[in-house]
Amino acid sequence: TRLSDMALVNIDLIDRNLYERTCDVRWWATDSAIVAAAQDASPEACGYASQRLGVILDAYTVYFDLVLCSMDGVVIANGRPNTFRSKGSDVSGREWFKTAVASRSGDEYGFQSVSRDPLVANQLTLAYSCGVREGGRRDGRLVGVLGILFDWESLAQVIMTNTPVAKECESCTRRCILDDDGLVLADSSGRLLQDHVTLPAIDRLKSQGKGWVKEKVSGKDCYIGYAHSPGYETYATGWHSVIIQPVDVPGLN
């Protein structure tokens, strides 16, 4: 039961933190400098937008970069041009860009799950986006897209590492976040995007929202604490939080 409690705390922390990202992108997409550059991509307007994005990044250290894109999916400005030379990159095929282009108002946002993004030197990111609209109005004509590239490991791995597992159990207790396919998105073992965890009981546990089972994992009897994303405000990742601990913890028996 304690393992399932800790699993719930982990995914709740992630949901709450990522909800703020959806607020950030919708707010910043209305910034006058960003709107002006999207409407008229002159060197002066794009330069000022880049400067403004840099100011935002100085205050919000959880992001790798912020990128402003034209309607055809070309990056026209970014907040850290000296670190990430993404200007001119084509992002028209990215999920986050396509979702923002298909949005109907400034209240909507786009999202792309954990990936290694070449825009930020292939570091692990989550991407959120919002349409930039004429006049900064939520119902204005779409003139561009703002994408924000979140430093995923700085959140997820800290939560996995700080899960309050007893010291003698820490090395053999795996804490991870999975998507619906079992792909590991965060992991105390450090195998992000490199491993799939398949648990036969996960469908039953998902229907309960939270719980635990005793099940074999890699041939060992383990206790598995589980929690499904509860969501926060209007946001939910939909992901699965799992903590796997051998029944026979070395050194305790």
Task: Describe this protein's structure.
This protein is of the alpha+beta class. Helix content is 30%, strand content 29%. The protein is built from 6 helices and 10 strands; from the N terminus they run αααββαβββαββαβββ. The protein has helices at residues 2-28, 32-39, 43-59, 95-101, 152-162, 202-208, and strands spanning 63-69, 75-78, 110-117, 123-133, 142-151, 174-178, 184-187, 210-217, 220-228, 240-246. The protein has a 5-stranded antiparallel beta sheet, sandwiched between helices. A hairpin with a 5-residue loop joins β6 and β7 (184-187). The longest helix has 27 residues, at 2-28. The protein is elongated and about 65 Å long. The protein starts with a helix and ends in a 7-residue tail after the last strand. The model has no long low-confidence stretch (mean pLDDT 94).
Question: How would the blueprint of this fold be written?
Answer:
Blueprint: H1 2-28, H2 32-39, H3 43-59, E1 63-69, E2 75-78, H4 95-101, E3 110-117, E4 123-133, E5 142-151, H5 152-162, E6 174-178, E7 184-187, H6 202-208, E8 210-217, E9 220-228, E10 240-246
Antiparallel strand pairs: 1-2, 1-5, 3-4, 4-5, 6-7, 6-10, 8-9, 9-10
Helix pairs in contact: 1-5, 2-3
